[in-house]
Input
Amino acid sequence: MLKKLFNFSLLNKRFLHKTALAFITLVLLMFYGCGKRTPPLPPVERVSQKVEISGIQQGGNVILSWTMPARNALQGNTLNINRVDIYRLAEPLTSPLTLSEEEFASRSTLIGTLPVSEDDFARNRLNYVDPLKFAGQPARLRYAVRFVNAQGQKAAFSNFLLIEPAARIAESPANLSGQVTQEAILLSWQAPEKNVDESRPANILGYNLYRKSGEKDTVRLLNKTPVTNTDFADRFFEFEQGYQYFVRTVSLGTGGEPVESLESNILEITPKDIFPPSAPAAITIAAAPNNLSIFFAANPETDVVGYNVYRTTDPNITRQQWQLLTPELLKTNTFQDTSVRSGETYYYYLTAVDKFGNVSLPSETVSETAP
Output
């Protein structure tokens, strides 16, 4: 009996000893565990900037564009936009117009990645060109983009851009050239013969003409409606101003909407005014004692800055020998010759001068005898 009690007591002590050791171990683990500092894990996907995209078909390409967020909007934010990912999904025309982001993410293809620099924020707007591979097929293209930061975190998708590409879009015009006249810059080009899918004849609704002057100027459309001929006169220009021109073919898209081609060659022109004004006309003389007053009509050219008046008493000498009465250009349309002698006959002719120094041909000769 004593032996049994001894054994039971011994077992009880061992049990208590093991329990105490386990408790002490647990306390130590909790103590050291509470004191350990581990770096916080980054959020799974929380990039707040979501972009809005737009786009058009142009020739055999789809051109996507979007506005970058303001740089100061990112101050104090951990977001550091590192790149833009571009996605595309080709789907049948009968597919539903609505699609969840989850479905788009699982079915779309990453077709391009654009790195983002400080210059991109300064330019504010980015573009991406997707060469079409589905033109002519009954397909709808669905595009979306999203920002990715330096840690690889991705923003939500942009809005979905849906485009039904047209195959029969005419190629670009060719051989754009220009000729400068006094009234206009005359542009001409060669019509395309086929479409981007090699089909013929070219689907031509007309042409759009574009012009840019200087680095800071924006590209401007010169015509209100598509030009149906292969020539155009730009009458709103300035001499000595450099211009860049290009032209695009306009075709009818799948829904009857106009679709432009890519641009033609770029034509650079700096028009020079080498065109003299017309000779002064309608010249009359009024005689008075010691005074002959000359009157004439103003020139029709807007760049005329003055006139020269020449005189002689011998109409048989050459024009170069006539006396110039206006060492400085005459700014009005009247002139009084007060250095005349009574009874003497005087002959006059005039020339007009424009702001570029071009001199007109001599006017008709007029004469009068001083009273």
